[in-house]
């Protein structure tokens, strides 16, 4: 690494966090449009550009949040996930990692390990976009295949990096997929449109504990296998 100098792109990527508390400062629509245009330079197999984005703010956002809150408060309401984001049965190292990040978040919030009610309340903040002024929903055509979902991931990643470049923060949110029917109705999604995830967008509140914990990463030595002769010449 001695000869590698970190640059602005590195900083935009490494400066991103899943931010879970936002200031009320509005985000100009022109800036959102700019970020989405930049993100659309993402590559996609066959240049299919399979992304569709719904931007929600103000009254429509508040109405969706109220509907979701009412649904959550309805006895027997479970929601119906649009697709399984996680495996049914956990295994290592993934089980430990998800437990670890949840532990860090709840510890930052001062929520005890057995305080299920406080955990639920914190989780429900997802459906208010953690107080962000802007919500985004990322959709694609359900007739497309897994390759297009890979393209979607690149697009969504670009949105988060581009947002950082403008001092904005994000939290990608799979939580909404459990409530796909409600979201689809509110957004007026076409039958063939599937919403893959939501996202909170805004300016982070630097004083809130949920934004003040580290999310660890395994070092490259854990996930990289070098097969070529790199290092021979060094
Ligand atoms: C597609 C996707 C969906 C996610 N859904 C949620 C979510 O619903 N709620 C949440 O609080 N975090 C969500 N996250 C954020 C992850 O928990 C977070 O990225 C991870 O813990 C690493 O932390 P970091 O992003 O701050 O580095 C999601 C991340 C991704 C990529």
From TrEMBL:
Q: Which SUPFAM superfamilies match?
A: FMN-dependent nitroreductase-like
- CDD domains tied to this protein: PnbA_NfnB-like
Provide the Nitroreductase domain boundaries: 13-203
Does the keyword section mention Magnesium? no
Please indicate if the UniProt record lists 4Fe-4S as a keyword: no
Give the signal peptide range. Answer: none
Q: Which cofactor does it need?
A: FMN
Which key words are in the record?
Flavoprotein, FMN, Oxidoreductase
- One Pfam annotation, family name? Nitroreductase
Q: Where is this region: Disordered?
A: 208-234
- Gene Ontology terms for molecular function: oxidoreductase activity
> Which Gene3D superfamilies does the entry mention?
NADH Oxidase
Its family remark reads: Belongs to the nitroreductase family.
Q: What is this protein called?
A: Nitroreductase
* Top-level taxonomy: Bacteria, Pseudomonadati, Pseudomonadota, Alphaproteobacteria, Minwuiales
